[in-house]
Amino acid sequence: MNERIRIYDTTLRDGTQGENISFSAEEKLKIALRLDDLGVDYIEGGWPGSNPRDLRFFEIARTVPLRHARLAAFGCTRKPGGAAEADPHLAALLQSGAPVATVFGKSWDLHVTRILETSLEENLAMIRETIAHLKRHGLEVIYDAEHFFDGYRRNPGYALETVQAAAEAGADAVVLCDTNGGSLPGEIAAALRAAAGRTGGLPLGIHTHNDCGLAVANTLAAVEAGASLVQGTINGYGERCGNADLTSVLPILALKMGRAVAADLRKLQSLSRFVSETANVVPLHARPFVGRSAFAHKGGVHVSAVMKTPEAYEHIDPALVGNTRRVLVSDLAGRSNIAYKARELGVPLEGKPGDARRIVEEIKQLEQEGYQFDVADGSLQILLEKLTGRFEPHFELESFRVTIEKDREFPCQAHATVKIRVNGKQEITAAEGYGPVSALDNALRKALGRFFPDLDTMRLTDFKVRVIDGDRGTAARVRVLIDSRDRESLWSTIGVSEDIIEASWQALADSFQVKLARDKSDRSGQPERAAQAAPASRIPPQGEQA
């Protein structure tokens, strides 16, 4: 039971087959280094015989040695009727310089006869000769038995023949693949035990897809049945519905099943976010273990219990996977939520129980009007400071004006003029933008830049508009949410109004106030209250970004 489970990451190959997921060769190298730092055993870099980008990756990867992981190049068995020595895909595997070759072959007779259009005997020869050829060149060879579970379900005898052929040819491990993602945990376990009886004690691995929402469950079922090599991707990226998500598989193996894995789980949350950022995909807040909401508490009863005994509502300590407990404040909040959140944001309420009671009532009233503070910690921090008399604005608005121009030939042009006051000094600036909010952002940034030069490290990362009461048509109240970030943290702010520009200004101004408060805390050596507004959103320095 204590056999170490080897982790094989295929984010850079199978993960990139997911819709809207793409990495340059240089981005893939950055991710590979982060995976190596996590401590995985294998990193599948790509298919060098299929595209120039993967060839480029292996070229640059040769110049950067890995500390923990072994680099694997992916490919297929030789072509039907051909010779392994003359196969261009196998030649590309050898030329990649990777010490590990992972090749896939057919286990399902339907694929052999209808897709490859060859005989069952020739398919077995393709498997044997491909593996033997790569082994003669000194490579570690992992054989991926594609569609194994579908093949075993329909023709178990032949599916088992294919994995036996791979074992007899000298494969170092055989990975059973649920390529279509349609298998159930019980089927996975039974088929894996059957394969173990035909592979002579060779290490068996598992590769699952999530088409039934069971990729993680199927992976764990395979491990319980004897698999010792686990394939998956960070964040579950992959073709169709994705692959087994290693950000769930790893902590479950280590923390729930007591299996040894060579991975520093404390780095898991930051790795998940880094891969999301590099892929330019919004992180899934509800992702187990590493999502921003994974250890978030909203109900007042829950928060009161967590403050006394965290395990009352948390199945693990969030720090074990690099995450952080979060308490949300909304119209469901009680005084426990406010007390916890105020302490987290550095707004002391000690000795003032009336403040918490008054703040709860104020927040409930504002949420009735459309505000949503559980997703806007930045604005919540400012509100708490205002309600406790501690808010010190870094700038004050005197006025702004936004104009939009449109003619028949050209797209809309936006212009904004902003008049603000900083430390008693008035500043008036104007700027253009791609839209009214962009123009306001540029004008405010330009005005504040004279007083606060560090603003160039801050940028807006997301802008969302929601209609609150749609039955009023174009006169409806709207909610604007803005996500902003700098080199160290990410925070969210909110604005609500019948005027979309007014709501946008509220959220935009709050965002700049949070940034300036954080910078002031940094300079004075005080706790970073604004950074704590999103403790689970630590991001790597910009130098590490794509």
What does this protein structure show overall?
The chain is an alpha/beta fold and 546 residues long. It is built from 17 helices and 16 strands. An eight-stranded parallel barrel has the order 1-2-3-4-5-6-7-8, surrounded by ten helices. A three-stranded antiparallel sheet has the order 11-12-13, with helices on one face. α5 packs parallel to α7. The longest helix is centred in the C-terminal third of the chain and has 25 residues.
- How many beta-strand runs? 16
Assign the CATH topology of the largest domain. TIM Barrel
Radius of gyration, in Å, reads 28 Å
Q: Specify the structural class.
A: alpha/beta
Order of neighbouring strands in the sheet with most strands:
1-2-3-4-5-6-7-8
- The separation of the N and C termini measures 41 Å
CATH-level-2 architecture of the largest domain = Alpha-Beta Barrel
**CATH homology-level superfamily of the largest domain:** Aldolase class I
